[in-house]
């Protein structure tokens, strides 16, 4: 029988009781929780004492804070606490599962077994302490990872780390890429972890993910780091994943990479030629003409400045 580990990278006490309560309310207790305390100033042990007989968990406090410099590496060292479980969920310390999530996972085992490496659930949002009262956000039952990502890119879908369960085997093969703030680390993970198999969705149960001033999604002061992450992530898409998309999607992803570069700094000549290579490869005459114009302007302006000096 497959086994499920629920991994919680812990740092903040606010709303953590809600997370633990949702685990204690699971109708199916065939899971083990691993809590990795990232040297938090808010000790959760008194709260954990309340739940010691309600579900099985391991609590480990790390001596050094890692999430402050590399959130993706903190996720990985928390996963390192697990034992012989086959599947892993990384649950935010303020996110919540409805009571049937684990039961639905095992109920669907016969359908997804050996056919996928990545499973996701329907979701609802919590703003602060208030659940948004709307229908659950659902997905196609089977979907290619590239299609799932592109729907999010196109703002017709959404995605959060907590709503996924993934195989430990594929995690060990790829790991989480260490982007700044782990921004896009989960999006890249589903493209990698899927390993050419479709994502399977369980729409009958919900994961509630929270947006608040206490988490990265709710903060407004991380713009520069998020922009650096966007550049790195879309460079990865352009150089490694474009073949998974159709030509129209490829061109939109190229333009996004170009836009993120320009948001961060002026384009270099090397940037122009890299992007021109891909535009030529996928033949978009209008964008090629724009590129030649920009390249000539940049070369002309560079020569003019050099002549003045």
TrEMBL record:
Entry's Gene Ontology molecular function annotations: glycosyltransferase activity
What CDD domains does UniProt report for this protein, alphabetically? Glyco_tranf_GTA_type
Listed InterPro entries: Glyco_trans_2-like, Nucleotide-diphossugar_trans
A Pfam match is Glycos_transf_2
Which Enzyme Commission number(s) are listed?
2.4.-.-
EC supergroup of this enzyme = transferase
TM regions (residue ranges): 272-288
Q: Which UniProt keywords apply?
A: Glycosyltransferase, Membrane, Transferase, Transmembrane, Transmembrane helix
Q: What is this protein called?
A: Glycosyltransferase family 2 protein
In this chain the Glycosyltransferase 2-like domain maps to 6-105
């Amino acid at each position: 029988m497959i086994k499920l580990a629920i991994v919680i990278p812990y740092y903040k006490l606010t709303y953590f009781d809600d997370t633990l309560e949702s685990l204690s309310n699971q109708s199916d207790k065939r899971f083990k929780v691993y809590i990795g305390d990232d040297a938090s100033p808010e000790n959760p042990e008194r709260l954990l004492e309340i739940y010691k007989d309600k579900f099985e968990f391991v609590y480990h406090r790390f001596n050094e804070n890692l999430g402050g410099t590399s959130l993706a590496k903190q996720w990985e060292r928390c996963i390192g606490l697990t034992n012989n479980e086959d599947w892993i969920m990384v649950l935010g310390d303020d996110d919540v599962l409805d009571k049937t999530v684990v039961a639905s996972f095992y109920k669907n085992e016969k359908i997804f077994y050996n056919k996928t490496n990545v499973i996701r659930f329907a979701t609802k949002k919590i703003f602060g302490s208030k659940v948004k009262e709307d229908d659950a956000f659902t997905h196609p039952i089977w979907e290619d990872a590239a299609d799932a990502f592109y729907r999010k890119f196109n703002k017709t879908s959404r995605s959060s780390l907590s709503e996924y369960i993934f195989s430990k085997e594929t995690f060990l093969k790829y790991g989480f890429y260490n982007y700044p703030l782990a921004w896009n680390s989960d999006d890249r993970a589903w493209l990698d972890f899927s390993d050419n198999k479709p994502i399977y969705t369980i729409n009958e149960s919900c994961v509630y993910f929270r947006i608040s001033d206490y988490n990265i999604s709710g903060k407004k002061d991380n713009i520069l780091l998020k922009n650096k992450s966007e550049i790195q992530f879309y460079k990865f898409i352009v150089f490694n994943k474009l073949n998974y998309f159709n030509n129209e999607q490829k061109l939109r992803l190229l333009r996004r990479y170009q836009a993120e570069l320009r948001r961060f700094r002026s384009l270099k000549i090397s940037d122009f030629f890299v992007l021109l290579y891909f535009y030529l490869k996928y033949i978009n005459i209008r964008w090629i003409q724009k590129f030649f114009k920009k390249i000539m302007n940049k070369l002309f302006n560079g020569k003019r400045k050099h002549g003045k000096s």
